[in-house]
Amino acid sequence: MSEMHAGRRKFIGTAATLAAAYGLQPGNAFAYEKNAPPLTLVASSPHLWNAVALMHSGRMFVGMPRWPGFTDTFSVAELLPSGELKPYPGGGWNDYPTTGPDPIKSGAVDLTKTWVCVNTIHAFDGVTLWVLDQGANAIDSGSDVPGSQKLVQIDTRTDKVIRVLTFGHDILPPGSGLNDLRIGGGKIYMTDSGLGAIVIVDLATGKAIRRLADDPSTKADPHRPKIGRYGHWLTLADGTPQVTNADPIELTADHRWLYYQAASGPLYRIETRYLLDTAMSEKTLGTKVEYVYDTPTLGGTAMDTKGNIYLAESYRPRISVLSPDGTLRTLIEDDRLVGADALLISPDRHLYIPMSQVPNLQFVQGPNGKDLRTRPFEIYKLPLPARYGNLIP
Question: Considering the entire predicted model, what is its pTM?
Fold first, then answer.
């Protein structure tokens, strides 16, 4: 165990321990005993997308970040049955100028009413669309301009914005970058992948707190780089590794446990009661963190009602499933799944897989890196085996 893990309470059901006990090799067991169903293509687009959200009404929405090379995009769109993308929700939200002076620095637009760089979208109740905007045209770190980083709540029945949550430098210090979120028990839990932390918002009051900001569990280990296709490090144009601190996040159905990790792993968890106890010092809080599993670099995750965590691996085209008893199985491995992103379980128990192809993007291929992406960008789905759980509402 590395120094980072020293002193941590081990999760009793770690996959490493139980795999050894039962003679399993991680990823070599299969979720389907035989005849796994094929992937179904849901949609395709020339625009990069990294998230999908489904409503009880049958409407589908997609999130499309303005990453390098993809600034000319809608940011948020409704995916119509015809396959057409309709900018959402209208009213100027998708009118962020991508040419001319920097709108963030010039103040040319109201950043609280415009999509800047949407990193993810979610629908937890099948009615409300939550949109997380990093507020900067760069991956992993957000804007320091107040109001640009925001969490927006939209009622899809009326297509109206309900509220816009913004945060001061006490919650998002310079260098922070909100990444992903889960909602449960009246709280919003978000990862800060810029500096590494967990941000929690009370749904009723809108009050936010910042936790584990100095804990190694929310930081990427500098000796553990992000691994892309064929085992290559994800590296920026200047030759430095592309680092993503606290990134994937999952909340159990009973809202008791929060799971999270840096994109390069490993996976940790903590009881939410400790995170919400503001009387507990950060030092003491760090002792409540539990090391779960030595995960590989991940593009996205999902969790079902039985506590299974679905892992979109970055260095190979595979979706794995880590179960609460510690076993790790392969759900599917398919050459089309290079660069799967934020996973989603639908009410009819399908796993939706949006393909952002991050390991193929030019800006993570290092100096003189080549663009390895293929067009169009796709969304696939796959039915889950009966042994696994349902959508967490």
Answer: 0.92
